[in-house]
Fold this protein.
Amino acid sequence: MRVIVYQASDTSALSKNFTREEFKCPCGCTRQMVDSELVEKLQAIRDKLGKAIKVTSGYRCIPHNAAVKGSSGSKHRYGMAADWRMKDRNINPVALGIIATQYFKAVGIYWYDGCAIVHTDTRDTKATWLCDAPKHYPSTTYNTFILPTIRRGRGRCEQRTATKMLQRLLGLTPDGIFGEKTENALLKAQEKHKDWPWMASAALPVGGQFLGPTSICDITGGNHHGSYSEFYSRACRCHSDGGGFFSLAVGGIRLGYKATVKNLALDLVNRAEKSIMGSGQGAKKKKQVFAALRAKCPAIIQWAITDEVLDAVIERAFDAMTAALVPKRLDGYKNAS
């Protein structure tokens, strides 16, 4: 990271297509700053797309960051972040977010009424999230891919947010429920693009139960703008405060699958997952728990007890609980969009 400090009156070039003026704080303050790495990576994306990028927010001084209700630790305060879109708005923010993950570890996709942008910053740790409403940021940091695999039905918080974005792409009302209307629209979109070579690997089995990363890249146009490897979701599922939820959910499963108990238990499982997924506190506790688990293992095998291994184990536990509680048939969503 190399932060360039300059005066607001300086409008000179930072790269082939970006100037200092594009990244300055709009409040009129004098001192400005921008990370040269941020500019270089945005220029690389601009070169790849061959079209102009508009930076909607770059550096923010402390008063301006507070005025726009930015977080106290916002990377915009240090010139490390930019919110941006295509100048002609001809590429949707989901596709831009997919593309941005090739260059940045930290990417957020913002798409709701009145907002269609991507946030990127130059932090050195992975951080990805989706935003479908002001101040609603379901984290996808512990997925390999920026978007989670979408399943038929209501899904978890980040899945519902991703479904809303898919529905916007398909021209549907974004309600976050992957039901019959969404499935039919998706199948039509896949049929329309079946000549695309990557559509052959689209992860949509019979019945439209899953929409995986390849399909998402295809539908959004993310693959159309670049070459992508197959990605696999591996979400984090660990939070010490979720212990009570785990116990109640497992206890409910053992009580004979009565409808009221199942619904309560499923709600508790969903609440536990929600508390895990977007919380910085949850990530901190996860790290502490994983370290404690490794410390209990013989030294000779500690190297094999990676965060990925533990994530996968916890993911299976959540999936098993959810599968036991959700009805096999999803008729309840038959008329959902």
